[in-house]
Amino acid sequence: MKPRLCIAIACAVACVTCVRNSQAGQAPFGANAPQIPITSHDRVYKADQTSNTISVYDPSSNSLLGVIPLGGIIPNIISPLYGNPTFDSGNYGQVLVHGMGFSFDYKTLDVVSIVSNSVTFIDTATNAIKHITYVGRSPHEVFHTPDDSEVWVTVRGEDYVQVIDGRTYENKDRIFVGDGPGMTIFRPDGKYGYVCSSFVPETVVVDVKSHEIVATVPQPSPFCPNISATPDGQQVWFTLKDTGKTEVFNARPPFNVWAILDTGPITNHVNIVRNMNGQFAYVTVGGENVVKVYTTTNTPQLVATIPVGELPHGLWPSGDGTRIYINLENGTGLQVIDTLSNQVIATLPGGQAGQALVYVPTAVPTGNGLSNLVPLGSSGESVHLFMGPPGSPASAAPTTVTLNNQGPIDLLEAAVTGLQPDTSYTLGYVPDLAAPGQNFQPLNTFTTNAAGAQIAESIGVLRELLAATPQPEDFLVIVPAGSTTPVQVQLQ
To answer: Is 2.60.40.200 the CATH classification of the domain at 382-490?
Structure first.
């Protein structure tokens, strides 16, 4: 081979390697973090809010390994004795298992339970509970600081971020940020923490070392559930569930807003993917049952819309950026997307009403990682229904409904979309769709948000009424409050 040709080939190989290495770094790590190929040592964890479990997956085989039970079902959790290990068969009595984070050494999974006001710290290698720390009213999300010295918990029912010692798991400080902090994420270098709000239209920027607020960023609406920072340290993305928007701002001073995107009704979570194709933001849009993919340029552009299952919620990329995992709140499981082709490649079962989800590389350094897991069992049992305008096909239904099995009763969750904004409606059921005004039984009266969407819930003996085969005894309907004329009905 001629010397010039050898030099050209060597340069080409070097360039390809450079490009691929430049796209290393799984969020929330920095861009210089190494790529970590998917292996059986990695784990995907999803928080199951209704079954109060953690579903645990092996991403190398796309398989559910089992669940970590943190609490019981609805009939039990209303007991004054709930949480006593003797009463509750060894469970620790957590309620509404919801938020998730992990330590930067991959050894600890952090799990927030909203109603029991707790953060459960779990050893990733053994699935064993290491510690439970109780915080203020209705915590929402949690994450370790990049040096693992602290754990920050947004206490959404109050007005502060609870700071927990990353070694002892004891409460050590409070950072007061205003009503309803939604979630905290950190710039990869650990300089700043960004805290969006679920109650007031303002995100605050906190100096991590001093715990002092150094800046505020306006939100176009109050309800931010989720926030992410790009591995290159340039941008912060957060979602607005009430208006179906996503905001992008400068991760560095002066923290100016770069873009406000109309992403869609029930915009849930956002995360960042870096792979050989570049750096992209992935956004779950629950009201459209899609994941939308945007460039992370200063003027983000939509480059893909990926159809997924019912009510996508949390999401997290693999350590090499070639996959992203999507938690399906109404779909009762998760889906796997190949980020190089932006195609769904697997659908897996899981616990009920999935919320947050994280991917932890090398979570299990040795062994099979099956300790302290139990089979999914009834924690994954649910029935799925669809609602839309009378006469429309179920395949085009804007509203999805899940009936989660809670033993003798069911928890109904409807992801309602396609209605008028800021309007009151009643979800109920009738025995005859042709005569909806007769024997109407209300289940929930709700007001839609600015995107014409809402999550409506109810509890009762519902499967035998609404999902009996071959024909249900009753049918779900949505009517304007005070009316009996359905705008949406249960579709067959």
So the answer is: yes
